[in-house]
Amino acid sequence: MRKLITRFIRPCAPTLRGTPPVGAEWAHEIKWDGWRLQAHRTGSGVLLYSRPGNDISKRFPGVAEAVAALPGGDLITASSSLSMISTGRTSTCSADAGRQR
Question: What does each C-alpha distance from 50 to 18, 54, 88 come to in angstroms?
Fold first, then answer.
């Protein structure tokens, strides 16, 4: 049985290019404005890390609760947390305000 890595894992840094790559082997996605999160769930609980590796678990209790409720056992996942506003755009300010809920 493998041991779960419970410490922060530094994400890969993107490389800036003048144009996106082309070809059937490439997929592209929209870059939304929001918080980049790394979630670690073990038998002892959930830890959330920001992109530079700061523990932000207490800042986003709703996200930590959602990760805790996922099916399965121990896990590590990376994602973005964002907040949509009425104009259909994302807002990091709105996400900051919502983190207390």
Answer: 27, 5, 25
